[in-house]
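REQUEST ID: PR-0412
SUBMITTED BY: lab tech R.K.
PRIORITY: routine
TASK: structure prediction, single protein chain
INPUT:
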Amino acid sequence: MSYSERHKTGDNAMHTTFQHKNIITMIEKNLKLPSPPAIAVHILNAVRKDEAPLTALGDVIAKDPALTAKMLKIANSGMFYSQGNISNIQRAMVVLGTDMIKNIALSFVISSDYRSNENSGFNMDRFWQKSVTTAVSAELLSRELNQQNNNIFVTGLLKDIGILVISQAKGDMYNNLINESDDNDSLIEAENNLYGFNHSQVGYALLNHWNLADDICEPILYHPCPDRAPDDHQQTAKILYFAGQLASLCRDYGAVTTAPILQGLLGKHFGLTEQQTYRLLDEAATKSNEIIKFFEIKSDEMVPYSVLLQQANAELTRINLSKEQMVLELNVARVKAERISCRLKESNARLRELVYRDGITGLYNHRYFHQTLDKELSRSKRYHSSLSLILFDLDHFKKINDRYGHPAGDVILMNIAKAVSSAVRPCDIVARYGGDEFAIILPETGVEGARVFASRLRRCIEGIATNHQDQIIYVTMSAGLTTTTPETREVTKDELILATDQALMLSKSSGRNQVSSLDMRHIES
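STATUS: complete
OUTPUT:
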């Protein structure tokens, strides 16, 4: 699910909070968020109360000898303290600070707990190798920028924890999605298309459920699009984004060709010099190799950037291709590229429609809905025409899933989709908004026309009988609608969706199985 630009006004701040709550509610409907490890709860409780003594955290850690040993190793590492004379946890808290010790302890506890729940189709060691490398990269980048942030290491470590939650819930289907995605951006796009939410939002929901601090949760939520983060979390979100890029680079033996691009981006966004970025790329692999050992992760040694450059230069010297050989290879590559391009164009033409379709209902998906609503709203403004939006969901659908099972629920959704598709005009857009919620865009339709259509649709859905294993199942719907007309003040897409959602909530609170509408003319700007 994408986010609109966050404006710095009270109304939009409330809107952002409303969106966050919607994210958590939607994810909790689709996924079971696990509870935090027991020792993590004790660690958080030990530092949560202002009156808690400084020794409370040390006492919790000291009760676990294995955790204590790991903590002292990392505390004495060159990453956090180079003098190497910390012999107990209380001394570590004095030297490194309580917050830093708390977050390092949480990093060990959470990573250890999740590694014990490995599923066969998911490479847990590879995931945690990248997570630790991201944490190290975030710490190094934060220091390079002179940004004091005791939470940055654990925030970097948990940046992609939503991947684990979705993998445990969805199994092989999601694991295949991971393997087919080229990078984090393409994975998030695929998740949004398939589920209506992505792993950064799941990570935010999980850590919010665990009551972790906002300066950990919020940057994780916004790290795919740091520029959309609130001002107080924007820099951390940006650090997380580039820490993920650094981690990917450390695990890529082709880094000698891609590293200069990342160096340029680091210079552009953070003002770092070429020497600083070179050192950062080199230290990210070196320090990560050291820290990964403390987490007891099976991992191949990552090669520092400087070593990769030396190896690449040696290989170029050895090959010493002639000009004729290079021209020949380029011509062969060009012919192959042209053939591949033709095949890709044909494949893209076939797949373009599938990208915008929901897998169960065959309706347009959440992504296509947002793109189309933007276009239709702009068109209605340009031609001074009316535009109506309907949001509806099925009443008590969770109870139906619980009673008859999700296969029955899927059949009901497909029947509803067929009925709605048959009822609309060719110019109307019907989309599965998420879960059991649907959206209908009605171009050039006034409020009366939209209300008549929604009422007719409600009666239609009420009469649909779904036969599942010789049991007849009926459902009802609650709907909300809003209309923007030439006389309405200019409204944004988010304002239109929010007003329609409020109308839907009104239908639910008034007894369900009904249609409610809100007049956009009476909504304050």
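NOTES: The beta strands are 387-394, 429-434, 437-443, 465-468, 471-474, 477-484, 515-519.
REVIEWED BY: pending
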